[in-house]
Amino acid sequence: MSFAADFVALKQIGADPAGGWSRLAFSAADNAAHDWLLEAGRAAGLAARYDAFGNAILRLEGTEPRPALLIGSHLDTVRNGGAFDGAIGVLAGLEILRRLRASGQPGAPVEAISFRDEEGRFGPFTGSRAMMGQHDPDALAKARAADGEALAEVMAGSGFSPANAPRALSGIAGYLELHIEQGPVLEQAGCPLGIVTAIAGQERLSLRFTGQADHAGTAPMDLRRDAFAGAARFATAFRDLICAAGDPALRGTIGVVKLSPNQGNVVPGEVTLGLEIRSTDGGTLPRLRQRVLALAQEIAGQEQLGLRIRALYSESPVPMDPALQEALVASAAELGHRALCLPSGANHDAGILGRLVPSAMIFVPSIGGRSHCPEEETGPAPIEAAIDVLHHAVMTLRRARA
Amino acid sequence: MSFAADFVALKQIGADPAGGWSRLAFSAADNAAHDWLLEAGRAAGLAARYDAFGNAILRLEGTEPRPALLIGSHLDTVRNGGAFDGAIGVLAGLEILRRLRASGQPGAPVEAISFRDEEGRFGPFTGSRAMMGQHDPDALAKARAADGEALAEVMAGSGFSPANAPRALSGIAGYLELHIEQGPVLEQAGCPLGIVTAIAGQERLSLRFTGQADHAGTAPMDLRRDAFAGAARFATAFRDLICAAGDPALRGTIGVVKLSPNQGNVVPGEVTLGLEIRSTDGGTLPRLRQRVLALAQEIAGQEQLGLRIRALYSESPVPMDPALQEALVASAAELGHRALCLPSGANHDAGILGRLVPSAMIFVPSIGGRSHCPEEETGPAPIEAAIDVLHHAVMTLRRARA
């Protein structure tokens, strides 16, 4: 078997007649993909098992009982997602274990892991957080998908349990993840590989501007308190603020806009904006958050609007481990592949493990920057290069720590 | 009986346990209200009938066979609407017919009419348009409410027909309507009465800005084509344009905003704005429409967004009849009531009849500018004044044309 053959085989599982792949976490397709992975691992002579949460673990034992190097990603997809996101990282791990086993070289144990529910059907990074013991047990036991399905119910009969399945950190030497970039940077730079410097932290806020719903025909312009007029002014000023910061790793997005009553002949009485800021600099986020809120308050005041602010989510940046980054950079150089160091604006399982164990990531370009859609694609050459670089780095790291 | 007693009686019909009144057009409550009106008319010694569409007509015959003066409005409400919108205009007509009959004075025939479906459950101004013969017969026969109910079905068994019920224009001398302002102008001016100069025309447009949906974490700010960022800039510039025109009767509203995918971590790929402009000046609307579209195109170009424009609705202004306006102004002056001349930003049955027969309207203040809600209210004094002024004007007009 080979990566290419594995990829063809995996694409048979969860292909959606409506387009792309739908391997929603703990769905029949997702379970089948994970069963297939364990089978493929066993066929390659590896120890293969699920942990108590259902994360799939393939293991090549080391020549002595030392902490393992983990290579991981995920097999689940969003609905009508792509074939590459997560999947190529897991299959890269399987491929590298096969190569390491065939080489017979001594060194530390290495594992390939597929974390469950990276796409967050039952919450953000449910599987890797379970392995790191990061869940509030009560909340996890009651976790439900947006479609109403309960985690406990979809796990019923599988032998898995909606509880933390913590693993001893002393048994983990480090974590490496290969993933698609999901953005346009590598493609635009014409570079096949990216070495991630840090995973951005984020602040998600909900801002509700409240004015007065009025008849669009009868309310004179100067007597209105138009919540959308205020929200639109704020949106423009918000983008200006983010762009003026001059930090290319900074992101500011208003992705959600909800009007009430959202009716053609009524002046909007209420507008809720869902806003997020991402930065790889831990100091930037709270500073910028303050400036954004001050801006919203200023505009709400000028427009005679009420303003309610809710913090939805806050997460500090996760710097990638310098030694692991360096190992990836050196391997790329040694194999003659160009690699660009870049931050990850998206979060990954490496952002969960990276808070507790040394972690690093290697990116491959997303064609057109697309992901989470059937059109998601990465050329075969960058994937092959990334697997080679990751393999080379793992060989070095196994030996280096031997 | 009196206006006050009629108003108390009518409020018993269609009161909604969830708040306000729900006399949706051709619902049981709406039918009951119209049956009650015909009964009240008969009890007052008037001829009372439905036309073929279900519009309710009370008539005081004149002393000679001449065109009739019509006084009208509507008894239907929006869901959870108020007690005043439409209802007080119909009851004013009934009250004036009672006074005219009691006076025994000679003159032209006078009618009080309740037009069906003013609130547009089955389309804009379905009842008055049926009486004016303005419907496309095929479309009307197939008309459905947003809740799926078909006009033909709700009419079944009532003897009404989903077809035009055109009335000879030669039989109509003019149309007068008393209505709540549904805006804040009279209240803020401290004036009990408004004489409408014109009913605003309107342009309704749908503007769809199309960019590129991107991952909010991975897409750098300078590589985005953020449809909402463009739409927000346009919204601000649009309001500035309307306000800078310096015409107090001009209105510009963005009441509908729809994002796709409207998800917190995705740069908006598509935004549709529902926009309307209203003006009482027929020349202003097309001129302003051109400027608004040029503005949208300019901003879409700067933001590298696609733009699709759809015209949803276009209606020219309807000036009120100068002689009828003058009769109302003179009556108010004679009875010692202050009256403000103002345009109507909202459309009314007078906007339908006014295209074909001389028409005019008298407004009473809406407390807080509220309407279409349980809190809709108008004090008793302005209503009484408006009925007196309308009664006086009708007496004058009946005689004047005798």
From TrEMBL, chains A, B:
CDD domains on file: M20_bAS
UniProt superkingdom: Bacteria
InterPro entries associated with the record: Amidase_Cbmase, ArgE/DapE_CS, Bact_exopeptidase_dim_dom, Peptidase_M20
Cofactor: how and how many bound: Binds 2 Zn(2+) ions per subunit.
Cofactor(s) named in the record: Mn(2+); Zn(2+)
Protein name: Allantoate amidohydrolase
Protein family: Belongs to the peptidase M20 family.
NCBIfam families per record: hydantase
Residues binding Zn(2+) 2, per UniProt: 85, 119, 372
Binding residue positions for allantoate: 204, 265, 278
Coiled coil: none
Subunit relationships: Homodimer.
GO molecular function, one term: hydrolase activity, acting on carbon-nitrogen (but not peptide) bonds, in linear amidines
Organism listed in the record: Frigidibacter mobilis
Pfam families registered for this protein in UniProt: Peptidase_M20
Binding site residues for Zn(2+) 1: 74, 85, 179
Keywords: Hydrolase, Manganese, Metal-binding, Zinc
